[in-house]
User: Which sequence fits this backbone?
């Protein structure tokens, strides 16, 4: 099989790991028309997986992402605890926890059953692809494919090459990602932290500095960011925004402001305290903000609803506003 | 008149400067029920102002922000080239260009006609309030009130004290801003660059570094930011997002990534080139991206439509998701 010439719809895709991300990735692949073989290395995930995936397929139906019935898609999925089900997969997505030893064992089990032509992808957002690809037998076919959660209702995707990845496979996945309804970015160099993470961590560094030094509060910073950046980011991105606002004052402000921004290289005080307290935010009701059990659940519901809303809204505004023919997948 | 005890709806508000921001601020104030006295220091703005404001009031009507007819609100506005119309205003908003000499002349003309009890506010986003307040006779009543564009259909507002501002007036404007349907933040210390600007410039510093060093492209960075941050920012803000995602990996990533982020203190190469070329983005079709005249117009139309959409969407998700009773103003 020459994977580069295969019709995307005919590709069987494997997924290893059926946690939060793994299950929504499975749903995204099913909704895109693939047959999916899913391996659950954790028994608890295996028991739970069927119902979880049916629920998410129902969400897809609700958002208008499915052409056929939920059962049509569900029947194209095989869930197993046995890696041998991956034998015919042209692409296998690894979605297990960010632990290099566990990932290493998983890659060994995958490569034991798939042909050398199979592309192996990791959904990691924390470990460099160049490091992970040293753990597989065909590193040039190893690649980073980073989804956002929930994978079936977000368009974000970062495709990242490691040092030894052959670009033609990255480009193949890039094309396939469009078939999945994504708006992928292709990072040809494996930089620490990927693009989006680096941008966000630059913001975190500055905002922790402003809060730690008493210049603003978490509440105000959150509010300001929601109502300022929130009012244009989904339409424009960063560079387009500068063009839109006329570019005039930026250079002058860069010159004045860059030397005043935080260059901190240490973990902020507030975050150190959270780690000491074993805070897990809404998960254990110990976060940067306080939560009752009811409030934590309300945030989960609100995000589910908001994500649907912004997904639909973003679909009305494609990359190039001139491409009016583009519609919700 | 004790301004702090006045019923917000009865306050007459003055606006000086009827450019892009000034006119949408006038519309925001009218839509909130104030009588408005507007001074147009530039004759061309004066000629144009009436029609521009009627158009924007029609936009407000379309978004559902008006309880009465467009003409009801328009009739509560007086536009003049003469500062004496400001005599009874409890609050005067200065919205002229970011030039300290021009602002100084404007403040002189305002303070010549208003009583010492009037609060004077600047919509500046570039000059420190502590500097501007030295130009007025009652600095404790001078304050920064920074709207986003278009002021009538955005909830963002940064209220900033200068070193000599009396906090009680800032708190009064803060309360008034809620009456305007804003989600204001109150910055008690006058820091260089305000909150939102500092956060965004931290992102700009990093993203120019990544693009300048060939690690990604403008197109990919824009795409990644739109579809990642865009999928949650309007709901959550930055700190809430960390709580939502469980907080677990942040401290570790801070430790690893902060030392690798850009600490540049100079204007990025790409931006220097734009300044040399006198690029003004979509305004003169010379930007970071290329534009035809048609494309520039399409971006303007798209932003107008998107802003309406995201404004309505954000209204469904107030600050605290538990406050279900809150609705579109």
Assistant:
């Amino acid at each position: 099989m020459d994977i580069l010439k295969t019709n995307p719809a005919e590709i069987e895709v494997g997924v290893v790991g059926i946690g939060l991300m793994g299950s929504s990735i499975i749903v995204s692949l099913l909704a895109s028309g693939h047959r999916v073989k899913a391996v659950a290395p954790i028994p608890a995930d295996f028991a739970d997986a069927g119902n979880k995936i049916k629920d998410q397929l129902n969400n897809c139906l609700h958002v208008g992402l499915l052409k056929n019935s939920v059962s049509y898609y569900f029947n194209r999925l095989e869930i197993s605890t046995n890696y041998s089900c991956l034998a015919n997969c042209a692409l296998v997505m690894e979605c297990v926890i960010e632990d290099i030893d566990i990932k290493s064992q998983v890659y060994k089990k995958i490569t034991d059953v798939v042909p050398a032509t199979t592309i192996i992808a990791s959904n990691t957002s924390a470990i460099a692809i160049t490091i992970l690809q040293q753990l597989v037998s065909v590193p040039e076919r190893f690649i980073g494919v980073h989804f956002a959660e929930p994978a079936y209702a977000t368009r974000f995707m970062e495709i990242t090459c490691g040092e030894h990845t052959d670009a033609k496979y990255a480009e193949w996945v890039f094309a396939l990602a469009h078939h999945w309804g994504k708006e992928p970015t292709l990072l040809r160099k494996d930089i620490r932290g990927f693009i989006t993470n680096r941008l966000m961590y630059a913001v975190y560094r500055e905002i922790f500095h402003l809060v730690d030094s008493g210049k603003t509060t978490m509440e105000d910073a959150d509010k300001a960011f929601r109502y300022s950046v929130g009012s244009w980011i989904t339409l424009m991105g960063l560079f387009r925004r500068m063009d839109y606002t006329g570019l005039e004052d930026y250079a002058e402000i860069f010159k004045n402001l860059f030397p005043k921004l935080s260059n901190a290289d240490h973990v902020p005080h507030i975050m150190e305290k959270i780690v000491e307290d074993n805070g897990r935010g809404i998960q254990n009701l110990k976060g940067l903000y306080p939560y009752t059990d009811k409030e934590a659940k309300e945030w989960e519901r609100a995000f589910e609803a908001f994500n649907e809303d912004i997904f639909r809204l973003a679909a009305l505004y494609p990359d190039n506003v001139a491409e009016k023919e583009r519609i919700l997948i």
Remarks:
- The beta strands of chain A are 12-16, 35-39, 77-80, 91-94, 119-122, 142-147, 156-161, 183-187.
- Chain A touches chain B through 114 residues (CB under 8 Å).
- The domain at 3-187 of chain A is CATH 3.40.50.720 (Rossmann fold).
